[in-house]
């Protein structure tokens, strides 16, 4: 079943053809892009503009979702997780988490995860991106990637050096909870942590308010489907609710040539020039394996003929880990919780949004701290570094070596802390009838930026095409990750006990000062409550093949002539940032490469 969206420069959707319709112009295109997500739509739009004589198709498994409040309204972020626009992939039971399953929200909608994410607009440390070049990827250093990321953004009110002409808008949110003004003074009084009002120029260390990707005119989410796509020309076709089963490959000398894709209903779409996978860090490696590209053991188990031996496919799976604590705030402060429990206030705030006035439905400005281990621990980090060396002793993995190397660089964050102006956690907001129902809360979400746990994602051998991917991240399988998060939780509590933030809060709600006091109790709390920040990456890494790489510096899959991967899976080593800005940058860089080749230059 196929739904078509034809994109023109004037309209986001020029016309919608009903389910079951045939693609206009037949089933042959120059460029076939699998995945209409963050990277896929950005790339497709740039190709449409840069190669106006080329025919381009984007194939997206989900619906359009363009008029969905849960996507567009910033204050409703997170409401679509687990719903019809989300693949919501489960991991296998995680041994270290007492066999708990952790779910991975991934966008199943036009815009992909840029339609579902929580709107954080930041970048990693410059040194982290510069390392990409050193690992064997010329042209992928900080200078080049910074320019590519700026091509994607228009940062309204941003510091000098911000992007000013890109499709995606970023801004500091107009809605602000006054009590969050107490966060930066409290944090910056501890452990030498600086104030930082310019965290996206390659130096994220410090505490400051964080920009979000919101359109300043509509105050809607600004993402690939509603910002990039309207700029495309009529040479771009987007198929929604259409799923690809595999890439079709044909022997061409010593290489394999991608001739197109086969859909799950058996339809074949032909590619004259290239097939490009932009299906994300979970599904791009799965599509490679379904097409006969991957490790022999994986393909043999799935009874798929191996066409290219590439054991790095689906390996190197990395994710940011999180755990949170929350506090009740004084009654004279209003938090975002009020729109959830007070229907009158909710209606008032919604009406303010309809009249383009600041409201909690804008979402609210939030603070983020990025810190190194010495800043988190408040002293020597020798014990934490020794743990890392012990865990990775003997490893020849280039990513592991880099994680050890970066521990000596104070400019590379190891911990992120997000300060929210509403409740966040696993305990749940106090239920009706509880003495705390109707109260306001705030939380610190603690994120581990470079966990040493490295896992994998592979096809289901029993159902390679339609089965759920087999995801095993191996969360908390080492003491470095566990102790790092415990250090961070202790520091988070210390922040709340520091003025002026101390005077804002009433009491610790989760876990509670009496419930968790000892290291053993912190450990138990962590194992019960650890979650993820929804940032899988590195599963089709841009690295030399000998180092477990899957794509070369032009993003071409090893062993192929014309099959590329363009999404977060090609990130070679884990970064200390929410990855959407980097993913847009990857798409912009890929477009430059492909357009140059397409023009014969």
TrEMBL record:
Keywords recorded for this protein, A-Z: FAD, Flavoprotein, Signal
SUPFAM superfamilies cross-referenced by the UniProt entry: FAD-linked reductases, C-terminal domain, FAD/NAD(P)-binding domain
Pfam families linked: GMC_oxred_C (PF05199), GMC_oxred_N (PF00732)
Signal peptide range: 1-21
Positions in coiled-coil regions: none
Domain Glucose-methanol-choline oxidoreductase N-terminal: 107-130, 280-294
Family: Belongs to the GMC oxidoreductase family.
This protein's name: Glucose-methanol-choline oxidoreductase N-terminal domain-containing protein
Organism: Podospora pseudocomata
Classification of source organism: Eukaryota, Fungi, Dikarya, Ascomycota, Pezizomycotina
């Amino acid at each position: 079943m196929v739904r078509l969206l034809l994109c023109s420069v004037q309209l986001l959707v020029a016309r919608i053809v009903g389910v079951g319709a045939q693609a206009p112009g037949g089933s042959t295109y120059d460029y076939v892009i699998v995945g209409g997500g963050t990277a896929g739509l950005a790339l497709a739009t740039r190709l449409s503009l840069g190669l106006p004589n080329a025919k381009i198709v984007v194939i997206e498994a989900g619906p359009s979702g363009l008029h969905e409040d849960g996507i567009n309204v910033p204050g409703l972020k997170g409401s679509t997780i687990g719903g019809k626009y989300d693949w919501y992939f489960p991991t296998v039971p995680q041994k270290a988490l007492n066999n708990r399953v952790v779910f991975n929200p991934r966008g199943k909608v036009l815009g992909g995860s840029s339609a579902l994410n929580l709107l954080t607009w930041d970048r990693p440390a410059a040194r982290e991106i510069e390392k990409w070049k050193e690992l064997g990827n010329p042209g992928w250093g900080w200078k080049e990637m910074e320019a590519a990321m700026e091509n994607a953004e228009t940062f309204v009110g941003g510091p000098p050096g911000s992007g000013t002409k890109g499709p995606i808008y970023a801004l500091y949110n107009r809605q602000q909870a006054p009590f969050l003004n107490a966060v930066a003074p409290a944090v910056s009084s501890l452990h030498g942590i600086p104030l930082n009002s310019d965290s996206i120029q390659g130096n994220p260390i410090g505490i400051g308010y964080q920009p979000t990707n919101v359109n300043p005119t509509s105050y809607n989410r600004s993402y690939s489907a509603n910002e990039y796509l309207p700029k495309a020309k009529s040479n771009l076709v987007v198929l929604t609710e259409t799923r690809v089963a595999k890439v079709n490959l044909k022997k061409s000398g010593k290489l394999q040539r991608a001739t197109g894709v086969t859909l799950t209903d058996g339809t074949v779409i032909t590619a004259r020039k290239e097939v490009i996978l932009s299906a994300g860090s979970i599904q791009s490696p799965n599509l490679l394996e379904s097409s006969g590209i991957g490790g022999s053991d994986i393909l043999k188990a799935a009874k798929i003929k191996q066409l290219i031996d590439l054991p790095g496919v689906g390996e190197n799976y990395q994710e940011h880990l999180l755990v949170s604590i929350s506090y009740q705030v004084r009654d004279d402060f209003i938090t975002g919780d009020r729109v959830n429990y007070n229907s009158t206030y909710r209606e008032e705030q919604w009406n303010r949004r309809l009249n383009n006035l600041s409201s909690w439905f804008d979402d609210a400005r939030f603070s983020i701290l990025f810190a190194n281990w010495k800043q988190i621990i408040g002293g020597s980090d020798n014990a934490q570094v020794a743990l890392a060396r012990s865990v990775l002793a003997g490893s020849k993995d280039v990513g592991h070596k880099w994680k050890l190397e970066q521990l000596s660089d104070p400019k590379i964050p190891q911990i992120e802390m997000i300060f929210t102006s509403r409740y966040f956690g696993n305990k749940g907001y106090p239920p009706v009838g509880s003495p705390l129902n109707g109260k306001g809360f705030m939380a610190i979400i603690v994120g581990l930026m470079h966990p040493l746990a490295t896992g994998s994602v592979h096809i289901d051998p029993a159902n390679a095409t339609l089965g759920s991917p087999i995801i095993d991240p191996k969360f908390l399988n080492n003491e470095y990750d566990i102790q790092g998060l415990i250090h961070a939780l202790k520091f988070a509590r210390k922040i709340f006990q520091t003025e002026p933030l101390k005077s804002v809060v009433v009491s610790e709600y989760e876990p509670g000062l009496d419930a968790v006091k000892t290291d053993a109790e912190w450990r138990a709390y962590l194992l019960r409550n650890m979650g993820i920040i929804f940032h899988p990456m590195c599963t089709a890494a841009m690295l030399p093949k000998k180092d477990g790489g899957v794509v070369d510096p032009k993003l071409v899959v090893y062993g192929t002539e014309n099959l590329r991967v363009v999404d977060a899976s090609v990130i070679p080593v884990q970064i200390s940032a929410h990855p959407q800005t980097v993913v847009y940058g990857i798409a912009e860089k890929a477009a430059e490469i492909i357009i140059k080749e397409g023009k014969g230059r």
